[in-house]
Write a structure and sequence with these properties.
By secondary structure, the chain is mainly α. Helix content is about 55%, strand content about 10%.
Amino acid sequence: MKLLSRSEEILLLAVWRLEGNAYGVSIREQVSRVTGHEWTFGAVYVPLDTLTRKGYVRKSLSEPAPQRGGRSKCLYALTDAGKEALREIRRVQEALWDEVPEMAFD
């Protein structure tokens, strides 16, 4: 399995955490808040399209919302393949960090 990039990992975790309310703006707000850096819409949507093509997220349209002028939101949901990719990157990171002595940061 090909490992996720850091931005892909962050976006997949945001989609998972937002459980059913993961759309462009909410994902961007989540990752910006957690990372402390303002993410552009391009930094969110381009990797989301890649993750969709890889089968890690599924995209669907919400019901039209009156406050959006009758437009739907594009919602994202994590797939089983996306969950597996997150498990794999976590396993690799934990194995790598396990080899770093605590004293190295003092």
